[in-house]
Amino acid sequence: MRSFVPPAVHRLCEAGVVEEGLELLERARGVFWSQALRLRISVEEIPMAFRDPFYNLSRQIEMLSGSFAPLDWNERDPAYDAQRRRLGNEFDRLCAQARAVPGYENFLQPISIRERFKEAALSGPVVVLFSAMNRAYAIIIRLDDDGDVKFTRICCEGLAGNALQKLSTGLRSVSIAGREAIKSRREFGDPAESSPSLDSSQGERADWPVGQRTAANTILRTLWRKVVKPVISELMLKPTNGRNRPRLWWCPTGEFMFLPFHAAGIYDGDGKSKVGECCPDYVVSSYTPTIGALISSKKTFEPTTRTDMKMLLAAVPVPFKGDRLRGTVSEVEQISQLVSDEERIVLPPEDDTLLNPQAGATVNTILDNLRDANIFHLASHGTQAPDSPLDSGFIMRDAKLTISSLMQLPQLKGFLAFLSACETAKGDQAQSNEAMHLAATMLFVGFKSVIGTMWFMTDEDGPHVAKHVYTELLAPKDGYLDPEVIPYALDEAVRDLREKGLPPERWSLFIHFGI
Known about the structure:
This protein is an alpha/beta fold. The chain has 3 domains: about 5-115, no CATH class; about 125-285, no CATH class; about 300-515, Rossmann fold. The chain contains 16 helices and 15 strands. It has a 5-stranded mixed sheet, with helices on both faces. It has a 5-stranded mixed sheet with strand order 8-9-13-14-15, with helices on both faces. A hairpin with a 4-residue loop joins strand 11 (about 395) and strand 12 (about 400). The longest helix has 26 residues, at about 160-185.
């Protein structure tokens, strides 16, 4: 699969049949999530006589996919393959029987791929990024003036293979270097680090090596010139401010998954002022792991009123392994001031950081309460498991809350998951075609909007960004919560960090997924 699909997509695009190339790419990547999402439908959509058999079979397939699937594209497991074929045949047989029931003729019948692309682009353009055969492409999916779906292919000159990998690893190296510099200053008792403040005109700029800041600016400039600016030009967008800017969704694949296109631009040596243009001048960016994930989030969205809102607010200042998290107590305290006690889910005293700064949430506390939460805010360590992506997760007080355990939850009706943790939107490079990361998992279990981070986050930044997002989102005291507020509020919070003089590694890591 890995060796076949990208060249095939490349040849289709080169032949001018971009739609067919996109269809193959969408069907081949994210197979794990696509199959899982197909199983997660409302019980009302299933004929009454088939609800129990369908539910039982769906759970068997999910268990097989979630716990035992070999995630390496090149790995084969005959026993797994045989079991998967058996369950797949049984699933198809059950669907065929259900479609014989009057009124259910289209039960789980996929809509045409063209209609799917059209549905995805209803709220704004979607840009699919992929590389193959030493070429890199940005494919824009949008609606024309007649409301029909339109595809435009842009060749990203000079970005393919090793060039992409160098950009993604380079930015991660910059992040690690800056984080270690700050950690070193704290360990040696620099008084400036005892009570860090984002209100200082200098912030922590001096902590980040000048050479590393220059490298980050170079990477963001390359992304702007090679990818983002050509897309903006093709869409004929003009620079504007605030919420007059349109939405745009990035759907990166392969090595593109590890790059912050939302932050691309031309910045000065400090990363504070712009010498030239940047992506946020034109659009407010969101991401989606696959086209299907975006469509699913839109179709299953249910409006949430302020009176019905329940927030699961959790933090883990002292995880069972890893460094202590310095900013989590302040973070949850600031957020708690924006919601009433009735709007927060009550946690056991030993899990509630608001009652005890040494307390922290456990795995079971999160799993037991997520089904009641519209908004989930978690301030903790996040970690990726490259050799076993389903073991990636959040480091809690007692153990790791894994992707695998989250996938066992029933479909949630979540509104927003704010993952104030490191590496929540960082994919596994070995499984880059599966978009296997923590933010994608929260979309899968039912949250329609997810905020995550692409790499290591500095402790002081999470509270600042979270407070701004929730202040904007929760400003209305009644009525419905507006999902459109979330990406704009995140963009504003990130812009504030940038204008305070913090280096790009500090503000470009925050990322929005979903609607």
